């Protein structure tokens, strides 16, 4: 099975889509695509999330569309049934990791401390999401982990912005950063899709 990192290819930004409708999700994804993005994460935080994921995949078959905020086996099953190309979780548990281990698509489990990292690595995961990155030690924490967990690489999300993304990306054990800043709520509400396109192009440059 492909690793999550291999799905990213040269993309160093994991852009997060939180959509209140399928139509809104397609608009956001289209704006991101115009900014050079080929992979997006749809967070399952609204009632329309699954429908949005399916709509984006239908509208843009060339895009890699995954599901985020997967916190239970039930949510995982729904995401996979909707055709998610990858799975991202904000946290882990033994039961969730057991299900993720059998997942047919790449997975990026969420961790926030050394115990989480050790647990995830025991299940065979070496690519992890640090969340919430700004509260879990940020770039300094990821840097410190390089000597202890030498096989682990990170994609931090939560508190990552245009101002600090390079603090993370300069680290050899950080392969990407995730964030919502490239699709600010105000832009989405105003239908300012060009602002999203510009932010994605700049963030992924």
UniProtKB/TrEMBL annotation:
**Presence of the UniProt keyword Glycosyltransferase in the record:** no
Molecular function via GO: (R,S)-4-hydroxy-2-oxoglutarate aldolase activity; 2-dehydro-3-deoxy-phosphogluconate aldolase activity
Leading EC class: lyase
- Per the record, the coiled-coil ranges are none
Q: In which pathway does it act?
A: Carbohydrate acid metabolism
- List the PROSITE patterns: ALDOLASE_KDPG_KHG_2
What Enzyme Commission number does this protein have?
Answer: 4.1.2.14, 4.1.3.16
Which terms are listed as keywords in the entry?
A: Carbohydrate metabolism, Lyase
Domain of life according to the entry: Bacteria
* Family designation: Belongs to the KHG/KDPG aldolase family.
Q: What does the record note on quaternary structure?
A: Homotrimer.
The protein's name is: Bifunctional 4-hydroxy-2-oxoglutarate aldolase/2-dehydro-3-deoxy-phosphogluconate aldolase
């Amino acid at each position: 099975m492909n690793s999550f990192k291999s799905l990213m290819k040269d993309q160093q930004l994991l852009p997060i889509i939180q959509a209140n409708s399928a139509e809104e999700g397609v608009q956001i994804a289209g704006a991101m695509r115009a900014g050079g993005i080929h992979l997006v994460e749809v967070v399952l935080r609204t009632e329309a999330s699954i429908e949005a994921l399916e709509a984006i995949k239908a509208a843009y078959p060339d895009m890699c569309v995954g599901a985020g905020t997967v916190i239970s086996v039930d949510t995982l099953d729904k995401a996979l049934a909707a055709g998610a190309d990858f799975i991202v979780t904000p946290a882990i548990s033994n039961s969730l990791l057991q299900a993720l281990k059998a997942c047919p698509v790449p997975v990026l489990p969420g961790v926030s401390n050394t115990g989480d990292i050790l647990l995830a690595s025991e299940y065979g995961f070496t690519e992890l999401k640090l969340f919430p990155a700004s509260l879990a030690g940020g770039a300094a924490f990821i840097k410190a982990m390089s000597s202890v967990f030498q096989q682990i690489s990170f994609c931090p999300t939560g508190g990552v912005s245009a101002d600090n993304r390079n603090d993370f990306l300069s680290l050899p054990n950080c392969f990407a950063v995730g964030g919502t800043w490239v699709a600010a709520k105000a832009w989405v509400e105003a239908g300012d899709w060009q602002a999203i396109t510009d932010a994605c192009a700049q963030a992924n440059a």
